[in-house]
Design goal:
The protein is an alpha/beta fold. It has three domains: about 210 residues, Rossmann fold (3-Layer(aba) Sandwich); about 110 residues, Glutamyl-tRNA Synthetase, domain 3, CATH 3.90.800; about 120 residues, Ribosomal Protein L25, Chain P (Beta Barrel). It is about 25% helix and about 25% strand. The strands form seven sheets. Strands 12-25-26-27-23-24-13 form a seven-stranded mixed β-sheet. The protein has a seven-stranded mixed β-sheet with strand order 21-18-19-20-14-17-22, with no helix packed on it. A four-stranded antiparallel β-sheet has the order 4-5-6-7. Strand 25 and strand 26 form a beta hairpin. Bound molecules: adenosine-5'-triphosphate and magnesium ion.
């Protein structure tokens, strides 16, 4: 995998949003002495996706804007689903997005001992107890929001007995599922999360980071506020589904006497024509509907990187979508727009023909031997290159019509078009095979300096000098905007069968020298990225995005 040079994120075009306002107000009131400390806490159980990018840009962005710091913390409290493979990938992706955690890289599991001590403290204070209800009984006792729950028969155990049992849970005396530690809060609370939630469970499973020291593990709602408080996080941003957990977050902070971290919830990013849940992404990878986690059709950050999406485009996208308190669906066209905007400024132009048909000139003696082509009309400093011009060219099959439909301004019998960077051609004839396919077009060349009235420009490559290259045309992975909207329909049924089309294109010779990671605009076609796995002199190009929004789904 290639690693891009880490750019310093450009100062964002700031839109005011409620989190910026909360932080500004806290800074004014001196709540945290003007400090802003945030964290990005991925669970290392999958690869990061564009939804995570929203959280990363917010967490690191708010810290940067306020001269604070942002920690990267592996939220690895669940030993079962986690893997070091993911930890490394997460770090690479955050760096690639352009953010730096400096020395502040942490693991939630490094705090297990402190979490255990704090739990013992809660027990001594009579605020936690060991419960032996089975998980079914526990659910039954917990009840439903509109009716109070029932107290566990184990709720009145003495602190001494609880402490002894909890210590023996840690020592491995009891099997999985036989006992839990519960916070003693309020079985009548309308918020189910406050009805004596489980804060520790027994799991005889080694931990990928902490090793085999533990057979009891803290639950997320208990662990997260402690992690934040230990790191003195001031603003702990998370997605909206945690809003109902906030009273428990605050309860842990208060009852364990911790640094007053505050949880602030925002709406998660949902994007059209894709799925974002780790479980669904994993299914797509496992069932080989895509070629691994970095398949360019996935919304994973490694997939977007492999597709050729520049990290600055993702940061700009995350700024533009803003931060709100209500769930909404973002059109993937906005992401594509941000990608085009970014690439248009910097990426050199080149010509390649995806579906070639031969164009033969009637006047070979009147042709230039080579032509000059600007590398980027948007950037004169990018210079120009020479392209051989030949008596035979290849042009795009769809740029010729035997019988032009209305408003078709490209090549047709008797009609003229501009040849990009070269001059004009007027069609004088064509040939067809038995099946009726056009096999050859004839034309007369007119140099650039002579007036020819045309309404279109087409691209081309010289027939002899052009080289075949593999081009991968990536499209949307699903055919419908919300593939997982209907819970009764398997989202896989909406897979787009044409999401990847591989073609042998003919490219102008200079493209053969493309290095893995180089980007080009193939004129009139789209933006392309030389595959990281390309071999020398045999580049493979991934289409990052088309030139215009051409989706007709
Ligand atoms: P999943 O539910 O698919 O397992 P997750 O939300 O549990 O994903 P985490 O690794 O826990 O994934 O997420 C790390 C951080 O990224 C959390 O703060 C989470 O709120 C945030 N995040 C995850 N998905 C999105 C999203 N779609 N939009 C914005 N933030 C997100
Ligand atoms: Mg999670």
């Amino acid at each position: 995998m290639t690693t891009e040079p880490t750019p310093t994120p450009a100062p964002p075009t700031k839109n005011m949003h409620f989190i910026r306002e909360i932080i500004a107000a806290d800074n004014r009131s001196g709540k945290y002495g003007g400090q802003v400390v945030t964290r990005f806490p991925p669970e290392p159980n999958g690869y990061l996706h564009i939804g995570h990018a929203k959280a990363i840009c917010l967490d690191f962005g708010m810290a940067l804007e306020n001269n604070g710091r942002c920690h990267l913390r592996m939220d690895d409290t669940n030993p079962v689903k986690e893997d070091v493979e993911y930890t490394d990938a997460i770090k690479e992706d955050v760096r690639w997005l352009g953010f730096d955690w400096g020395p502040h890289y942490y693991h939630a599991s490094d705090y297990f001992e402190q979490m255990y001590e704090l739990a013992c403290g809660l027990i001594r204070d009579g605020k936690a107890y060991v419960c032996e209800l089975t998980s079914e009984e526990w659910k039954d006792y917990r009840g439903i929001p509109t009716e109070p729950g029932r107290e566990s028969p184990f709720r009145q155990r003495s602190p001494e007995e609880n402490l002894d049992l909890f210590q023996r849970m840690r020592a491995g005396e009891f099997p999985d599922g036989s006992k839990v530690l519960r916070a003693k809060i309020d079985m009548t609370s309308p918020n189910l999360h406050m009805r004596d939630p489980v804060i520790y469970r027994i799991l005889h499973v080694p931990h990928p980071h902490a090793g085999d020291q533990w057979c009891i593990y803290p639950m997320y709602d208990y662990a997260h506020p402690i992690e934040d408080a230990i790191e003195k996080i001031t603003h702990s941003m998370c997605t909206l589904e945690f809003e109902v957990h906030r009273p428990l977050y605050d309860w842990v902070i208060q009852n364990c006497n911790l640094f007053p971290s505050q949880q602030i919830e925002f709406a998660r990013l949902e994007l059209t024509y894709t799925v974002m849940s780790k479980r669904k992404l994993l299914e797509l990878v496992r069932q080989k509907h895509v070629n691994g986690w970095d398949d360019p059709r996935l919304p994973t950050l490694c997939g977007l990187r492999r597709r050729g999406v520049p990290p600055a485009a993702i940061r700009e996208f995350c700024e533009r979508i803003g931060v709100t308190k209500y769930d909404s669906l973002t059109d993937v066209a906005l992401l594509e727009h941000c990608i085009r905007d970014d690439l248009n400024k910097t990426v050199p132009r080149a010509m390649a023909v995806l579906d070639p048909v031969r164009l033969v000139f009637d006047n070979p003696d009147e042709l230039p031997a080579t032509i000059q082509a600007a590398n980027n009309p948007e950037d004169p400093a990018a210079g120009a290159r020479e392209i051989p011009f030949e008596p035979e060219l290849f042009i795009e099959r769809e740029d010729f019509a035997e019988v032009p439909p209305p408003k078709y301004f490209r090549l047709a019998p008797g009609k003229s078009v501009r040849l990009r960077n070269a001059g004009f051609v007027t069609c004088t004839g064509f040939e067809k095979d038995a099946a009726g396919n056009i096999t050859l077009i004839r034309g007369r060349f007119t140099p650039m300096n002579q007036p020819v009235k045309v309404k279109a420009t087409i691209h081309w490559v010289p027939a002899q000098a052009a080289r075949p290259v593999e081009v991968r045309l990536y499209d949307r992975l699903f055919t419908v905007p919300e593939p997982d909207a209907d819970k009764n329909v398997d989202f896989m049924t909406h897979l787009n069968p044409d999401s990847l089309q591989t073609v042998q294109a003919l490219a102008e010779p200079s493209l053969l020298a493309a290095q893995p990671g180089d980007r080009f605009q193939f004129e009139r076609i789209g933006y392309f990225y030389a595959e990281p796995d390309s071999r020398p002199n045999a580049p493979v190009f991934n289409r990052t995005v088309t030139l215009k929004d051409s989706w007709k789904g």
